[in-house]
Amino acid sequence: MPFLRIALLTLLAMTAFAGNSLLARIALTQTTIDAVSFTSIRLISGALVLWAITMFLHRDHTGKGNWVSAIALFAYAACFSFAYFSLTAATGALLLFGAVQATMIGYGFWTGERLIKQQLAGLVLAVGGLVVLMLPGLSAPPLFGSLLMLAAGMAWGVYSVRGKGAGDPTLVTAGNFLRASVFAVLLAIAFYARSSLDYAGIGYAIASGAITSGLGYALWYSVLPMLRATNAATVQLSVPVITALGGIVLLNEAMTLRFVLASLAILGGIALVILSKDRQLR
């Protein structure tokens, strides 16, 4: 596949991931849909689109997902939705992707990987950036929403670790989305009396599930084999930046100095860990 096409598909996939944050923020603050309904509709529509893609476009039908991974996926989706009641799109994406990468790096360390000096420096820089972002002040994000988004990132990190070598990634993701939808429906039934829906909110939830999740993941998995693992991990750090730009243009979100400095520290620190690991493996 030509380099330009790979770069374009990668950019589209990262834009889709950023779109998840933007759609959730718009739906949960500018429509009347509740977080439980948004989560349920997102997972169900994502499952339908992913399953259709695997049935019509994929030849490799190995792997079907599992219930443990589905729980992690559901935890991510639910915490993600509730967090965006209070977080800006940019802050939520920064916390989410920082927590995902930190969880996966931590798993590697737990399974026997050892960090060299540059990686330790990167971790210290990333943690320092998180501390700067979370310190009390006028521009600090709400603590509860931040903790929910960190939990969402950890859940997605667990999901990602469990998905390695599980078979065709799109098919596995479709199976896990379908299973996670069961938990989402049960939660929706439990909170039925508090549910709130409108056409706009439903539309945003479907778009988040079918387009920026379902099609976005399928697009990402199609280009992933053409990327080195380090490049794939590093390029995902662009998502908070794309989200921040989208938040400014579409949501009139302000860009604070605290957020800029924290972003540079968190994303720069994680990039240092990833790139140092790549050099270590050569």
TrEMBL record:
Q: Where is the signal peptide?
A: 1-18
The major lineage groups are:
Bacteria, Pseudomonadati, Pseudomonadota, Gammaproteobacteria, Oceanospirillales
**Which Pfam families does the record cross-reference, listed alphabetically?**
EamA (PF00892)
Chief subcellular location equals membrane
Keyword Membrane listed? The answer is yes
What membrane topology term does the record carry?
Multi-pass membrane protein
Q: Which keywords appear in this protein's UniProt record, sorted alphabetically?
A: Membrane, Signal, Transmembrane, Transmembrane helix
* Name of the protein described by the UniProt record: DMT family transporter
Give the highest taxon in the source lineage. Bacteria
The listed locations are: Membrane
Q: Where is the EamA domain?
A: 6-134, 144-274
TM segments? 39-58, 65-87, 93-112, 119-137, 171-193, 199-220, 257-275
